[in-house]
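RECORD TYPE: protein structure
NAME: ATP-dependent endonuclease
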Amino acid sequence: MNITYMRIQNYRNFKDVEMTFHEKANYLVGENAIGKSGFLRLLSRMSAGSGITEEDYADVSLPVIITMGLHLLRNHQEYFVGFPDEHKETIRIRMEKPVEEIFPHVYDDDTGEELPLNTMRRIRYISYSFVNPEDEMVSATVYRALETKLSQWGAAHLQGLTPEAQNFIRHEVRVGNLDSSYYVNIFLLSKLLSRQDRPRADNMKFISLVALRIITQIYIMSKSRAVPMESNLIVNQKGRRYLPLIVSIDEPEIHLHPYMQRSVLNYYKQLLNNEDSRFCELLKDIFGIDGLRGQLFIVTHSTDSLVDDYRNIIRLYRDRECAVWAACGAGFHFNEEIEKHLIMHFPEVKEALYSRSVLIVEGETEYGCFQLFGATLDLFFDYYGICLINARGESSISKIKKLLEYFKIPTVALYDADVKGSRKGEKNVYFTDEICFEMDLTKTLIDGGKRRELDRIINAANGDHAKATSDMIKKACRKLDINYHDYPPRLLWHANARNTQALYVYYFSWLYSNKGVILGRLIGQSLSRKEIPPAFIRVIEAAGQLAKVGMPVRGDRSLPAMQRD
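PREDICTED:
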C-alpha cells in the first residue's frame, strides 16, 4: 500500500496544495518554515485517527479537508487479513474536520459514503526525526523483549558479544540515557544482518539502528489491541503476508556525514522493499510476516541526502502572493530522449531545488567568475539564494532550464550570441553582446583602456608572458570566420596597440583556447564594476531580481518589472 496523491486544504501553510507521490521514496525540499515537517506531522495524525488542533487551521472559519489517494493492493487476488472479501486496488478518501468538532469525519471521496474513523488506522505510519529522536520514547521493556527474541533467533548464528563490544555497551550505558538492551540489540542486528562488528564503526551504529527502529515499531504494533497488526496485513496470491508501512525521516543530515546520509537512507529503502533477505527471515520468524510494502518520506535541507532522480522530488515553494504550492517530480512527463538527459543532468541541479532563482551558464570560465561578479555588483548569490549552474555546453542549457521550470524555480540563462537566432524567442534567455563570452570580455576591457588589466589576468593564469600560438589563432579565426594568415603568432604584449582589430583577435585567441574555472576566478576577482561586460551584468541582475521577487515582503503586492535589453 502506498499514498499516490494528497490534496491539503486549510492546514497550516497549505491553503490548497496538491501533491503526487512516488510509490517508493519521496524527498520533500524547500526553504525553511514552508511546511515540510508540518506535512509529516499531518501524516502522523491522520494515520492515528487523532484530531487536528486549532493552531493547525489556516482559517478557523473553514474546515481542514484532506483528500488522499491510496494504492491498496497490487491485483484483485490480494486482500487484507481483516477484510478478506474486499479486493479494491485503489481508494480515494476524504477527511474533514471543522474546528469546533473533536474528531474528523472520513468519507469515500468517490461515493460520498461516510467511513469509520478507524479506517485511517489502516495506514501504518512510523516516523523518525534526527532532531527529536523517538528512540528515547520507547519503553525499556520493549528493548528487553526484543533482546530476548533476537538472541533466541540468532542463537545458531552468534558466538556471543566480543569483549570489545561488551566494553562499548558499558560505556554507552554510562554516557547515554537508554537501557543497555538498546545497545545490545544494535550489536545483535549488526551480526545477524551480516554487518561489520566494529563497535565504533558508523555502519554498525547507524545502519543497524535503522533495522532496530523498524523492528521496534513492528513489535509495538504486534502487541497493540487498539489497532491489531494482523488485520492490516496484505496476503498475496501465493499466501505471503506483507505489512504495509509508511516511514518518514526528518532531517537525516543531522549527525551524519554525506556518505552516511545516503547509506542510511538507502538501507531504509532496502528494508522497505525486502531487498535484505536476512531481515526478511527475521520478520518471518519473529512476527510471522514475509516482508514489508513500504513507502518512504524524507524531509531534508541537504543535497547530499537527495537521490539523483527528479521523479522522487517534491519541492514546496511560494508564489508571488506567498501562497505555498508543490511541484512533484512523480507527476512530470517527458519523452524518452528528454528524460534521459534530465536524469543525467539532475546531479548538477540538486542545489537549485533550495534556491530562489537560478542562473545557467554555458561553460567553466563563466561558472568561475559569475558569483564573484555578483559580489562586485553587491548581489551576493548565497544571501539571495541564487544558484549558478554550469551546463557544460550550449545544448544542455535548455534541458536543464526546462527541468527547473517544471519545479517552478525562476531561471535565467546566458547563451553566446552565435546561437541567438535559434533561441531568441525563449523566455528569460540572455545573450552576449559579441559572438561569445571571451569576445565580450576582450572588447570591453580593450575598448575601456584596460589592456594592462587583461594582460595581468592572462599572465597570472599563464605563469609568464602569454603567447597567442598558431593553433590558438587558427581556432579563434575559425570561430570568427576570418583569415588566420593575417595574424602571425606572437606574445600578447607585442601586439600593436594601434591596431585594435588585431588586439581583439590575439587576446580572444588566448582566452578562447584557455577556458577554465581557474581563469574564471581570476577574472572575477580582478574586474571592477565598470569593467564587467554589460551582457554579464544584465543576466546577473535579472537573476537577482527574480530571487528578490520570489520572496516579497508579506502583504507587499508591488513587484518590480524586469527590464531586458
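COMMENT: The longest helix spans residues 202-222.
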